[in-house]
Design brief:
The protein contains 13 helices and 24 strands. The protein has helices at 4-17, 36-39, 43-64, 66-74, 96-105, 115-118, 141-157, 181-191, 207-217, 226-239, 257-266, 384-391, 426-440; strands spanning 123-126, 136-139, 166-169, 194-197, 221-224, 247-250, 272-278, 284-287, 295-296, 302-307, 320-327, 338-345, 348-349, 362-363, 369-370, 375-377, 380-382, 397-405, 409-410, 413-419, 447-452, 459-460, 463-464, 467-469. The strands form 7 sheets. The protein has a 7-stranded mixed sheet with strand order 4-3-5-6-7-8-9, sandwiched between helices. Strands 10-11-12-15 form a 4-stranded antiparallel sheet. A 4-stranded mixed sheet has the order 21-20-18-24. Strand 20, helix 13 and strand 21 (447-452) form a beta-alpha-beta unit. Helix 7 crosses helix 8 (181-191) and helix 10 runs parallel beside helix 11 (257-266). Keywords: Ligase. It comes from Saccharolobus caldissimus.
């Protein structure tokens, strides 16, 4: 009988041999798609594959992971209830507080790890811990290999990251962040490109050094948050030089429509801006060029569904709810029906995209933000991305802002906005409130703006803190 490690290694070998993970790289630059076999797989075959992999990961978790056996038994779930990938909704939703409880009781990683594989982790990832105790993820050889494959698919196909191209990664290079050097740079090497691991969190302290790198290395593809993209572009114009970037990869938050327009103005050499949604633990969806706001999901990698966050029941098609995800190839630390906390519309498109013929499903609209970022003003449900879109229409702003959330049901929208004007008069303030009000559907009298100078909004590393929670903790 095979050991757990032997079974794990056999699955890894199978994934490589069947072509789910490409092993002959870099490809010829003439190849348009990184992995044509998988990316254009017929829907019928893709759904069979999802069913097979869902059954496999559920059985694996039941057989090898103490956490899932206990959790699922307490909820009345057993693996034989899964007959088809659509049965994923029968699996109990797993939330972060359950992981934290398990981690505290069974440090350092909790009982959600497969014990035999926990000793062979190649990379440890962790959430920021901004809402409590950080949760950790362990990546073994299989998980690393598959995630690098998933990264290479969009980098090569959408962003033209190929031999002779220079890619600069200005995401987080520290703090156990999985999209940093351990994975994204390795995906660069698969593509044959030159990788610069800059680190967005160091930009503010090493600004001159980073700007020099951009100019000297003629960076082709630049990856960071929409806000740092804009800040760098505007500072370059103020200093009298142009950024060399041809492709902008927008990570860390959905980019509003007007934000993209501003980015093209401050980055005059950019021809393409692509939204990249993802999580530290390895979930991702990538905007398909030419299909604004439609983010493709690699369905051989994970299954998404959408629930009402109050009841955990599936929402109807077209309704909005909380995004739930199941990673199909994470065996060291399975994440099955795990709540990601993002607020999305339950509408997915399955027709092949017209440019590449990719058959994997796409979000019908962007992922606007996290469930906990939802707030109300005079009963109007809002998210930061709606505010951001409006702010970009206000003259002389930098696009940087902080929403001050002081209650669950607010009477006023209180917001801090950066302006380049030395003085803000009543007319400017009134016009700004009217623009915001018209865009988000509330009265100008229900908006209170705190005007600040450039650089005075709150950031955390390379991310603008668009949502400042000032509610009293219970």
């Amino acid at each position: 009988m095979a050991t757990v490690l032997e079974e794990y290694e056999a699955i890894h070998k199978e994934l490589r041999q069947e072509g789910s993970i490409r092993t002959d790289y870099p490809p010829s630059p003439s190849e348009v798609l990184w992995n044509k076999k998988i990316m254009t797989m017929r829907r019928e075959e893709l759904e069979k594959l999802k069913t097979f992999r869902l059954k496999r990961i559920v059985k694996w978790a039941w057989d090898h992971v103490e956490f899932y056996r206990k959790f699922w038994k307490s909820k009345g779930f057993e693996p034989d209830m899964i007959k088809d990938w659509r049965d994923v909704i029968k699996i109990p939703v797993l939330r972060k507080d359950e992981l934290r409880k398990d981690l505290q009781q069974n440090p350092p990683f909790g009982s959600i790890f497969v014990p035999e594989l926990a000793k062979r982790i190649r990379f440890v990832g962790a959430t920021s811990g901004s809402t409590g105790l950080p949760t950790f993820q362990g990546w073994g050889a299989l998980e690393l290999d598959y995630f690098e494959e998933a990264q290479a698919r969009y980098l090569w196909t959408f962003a033209e990251v190929k031999p002779t191209k220079v890619y600069a990664n200005y995401l987080n290079m520290s703090g156990f962040y999985s999209w940093g050097p351990p994975l994204v740079e390795t995906a660069m090497w698969r593509c044959g490109a030159t990788a610069i691991a800059g680190g967005g969190e160091t930009y503010f302290n090493w600004k001159n050094r980073h700007n020099l790198i951009f100019k000297l290395w003629k960076v082709d593809v630049f990856a960071t948050t929409p806000w740092l993209h804009r800040l760098i572009g505007e500072e370059a114009l103020l200093e009298g030089w142009e950024t060399p970037f041809k492709v902008l990869l927008l990570h860390g938050g959905a980019a509003a429509e007007n934000t993209k327009k501003k980015l093209f103005k401050v980055h005059p050499n950019a021809k393409l801006a692509i939204s990249v949604w993802g999580t530290t633990d390895g979930h991702m969806a990538i905007e398909v060029p030419g299909l604004d706001g439609q983010l493709v999901i690699w369905e051989d990698m994970e299954i998404f569904d959408v629930v009402d966050p109050k009841t955990d029941e599936s929402v109807s098609e077209g309704e909005r709810g909380e995004l739930i995800a199941t990673l199909l190839n994470h065996f060291t630390m399975p994440l099955i029906r795990y709540s990601l906390g993002d607020y999305v519309k339950n509408e997915f498109l399955t027709d092949p995209d017209p440019k590449y013929g990719i058959t994997h499903m796409r979000f019908a609209e962007p992922v606007p933000g996290r469930v906990e970022w939802m707030f109300t003003v005079k009963g109007k449900l809002l998210l930061p991305i709606y505010i951001e879109d409006a702010i970009n229409e206000i003259q002389d702003t930098t696009g940087m802002f902080n929403i001050l959330v002081y209650d669950n049901q607010m009477d006023k929208l209180k917001i801090r906005i950066e302006t380049r004007r030395n003085e803000v008069d009543a007319n400017y303030d009134r016009e700004a409130r009217e623009i915001l009000a018209n865009k988000i559907g509330i009265s100008p009298n229900d908006i209170e703006i705190e005007w600040v100078k450039p650089g005075q909004t709150v950031w955390t590393g390379y991310k603008l803190q668009v949502f400042l929670d000032q509610r009293k903790k219970k």
